[in-house]
Amino acid sequence: MRDNVLMCARSGDEAAFWELVEPYRSELQFHCYRILGSDGHANERQVDRLPAARSVPGRPAPTPRSAAMTSAKTAAMAAALAATLGLAAASWVVAVRQMDGMDMGAGSELGSFAFFVALWVTMMAAMMLPGATPAVLRRAHASGRVRAVPLFVGSYLAVWTLVGVAVYALYRPHGSFAAGAVAIAAGVYEFTPLKQRCRRRCRESVRSGFQFGRYCVGSSVGLMLMLVALGVMSVTWMSVIALLVLAQKLLPSKAAIDLPLALAIVGLGILIVLTPSSIPGLTPPM
C-alpha cells in the first residue's frame, strides 16, 4: 500500500505526496524552529520548500488528477476562509447588540445561564475565529473538503464553551482590588513557560479542533480572565483583548514585543489597585 502511495507521489499526485509528508511535519517543524528560532519563519520555510520538493528535475509533470485535487483544495480553502471570517463578523454584530447597556465594569451581572453561555459562544466566535483562520485553512488543505471545517470550528468553540461554563460557575461581581489582582496575575502569566509553549503549539498543525482549542485556551486564558475581571460585558475591553489575542496568534513570539506587553498588563493591574477611578468604566457610576 505504501509503495503504491510512493509511486503516485513520484508521478506528481499531490494528495499522495502530502500523505507521505504529513506524519513527519511535526518533526520537520521542530528542526526548522531550532535552526530559524521562530515558529513563523519555520512555517513559512515549510510552506515554501515542501511543494518545491515535488518539482525536482526529471520528475514527471503533475497528472490531471493531481491538478484536480489542487483545484479542489484551493476551492475548499477559499470557502473555509470566507465562512470563518464571515461567521466572526456576524458574531461581532450579534455580541455588540446583546451586550448593549449591560456593561457595569467589574460589577457586571451575567444574567441567566442560558443567556450567558449563548452570549459567551458568540463572543468567542467573534474574538477567536480570526486568529484561528490559519489553522482552519490548514485543516481544509489537509482534508481537501469544506465539510471538515465545521467540525473543526465547532469542536474548537466547544472548548471555549467549557471555559464559559467555568466562568459562569465561579464568577461573582467584584471590586476594583480583585480586578487589579487578576490583571496582575494575567501579566505574570505571560512570562510563564506554559504560556509560551501553548502559544507555540497554537500556531502549529493540529489534528482536531479540540486539540487546537486546548492549546489556544492555554495561550489566551490570562487575557480572557482579564476581560472577565475588568468588564465581561464591555465591548471596549472585548475589542482590546481580541486584538491582543489575534496578534499573539498570527505573529511570532518576540521578547521585544512580549516583554513590554506583559509589563504593561502588570502595570495596569497595579494602577487599578491603587487608583481605580483612573480606569474609565471599571466601576459603575453612583
What's the helix and strand layout?
Layout: H1 2-10, H2 14-21, H3 25-36, H4 39-52, H5 64-99, H6 113-143, H7 148-170, H8 176-189, H9 193-201, H10 209-231, H11 235-250, H12 255-274
Helix pairs in contact: 1-2, 3-4, 5-6, 6-7, 6-11, 7-10, 8-10, 8-12, 9-10, 10-11
Structure overview:
By secondary structure, this protein is an all-alpha fold. It has 2 domains: 61 residues, no CATH class; 192 residues, no CATH class. Helices cover 75% and strands 0% of the residues. The protein contains 12 helices and no strands. Helix 6 packs antiparallel against helix 7, helix 7 runs parallel beside helix 10 and helix 8 packs antiparallel against helix 10. It is elongated, with a radius of gyration of 22 Å. The mean pLDDT is 83.
Mean pLDDT: 83
Low-confidence stretches: none
Bin the helical content: over 70%
Cα-based radius of gyration, to the nearest Å: 22 Å
User: What structural class results from the helix and strand content?
Assistant: mainly alpha
Task: List the defining traits of the structure above.
mainly alpha, 12 helices, 286 residues, 2 domains, single chain, 75% helix
Brief description of this entry?
The chain has 286 residues and is an all-alpha fold. 75% of the residues lie in helices and 0% in strands.
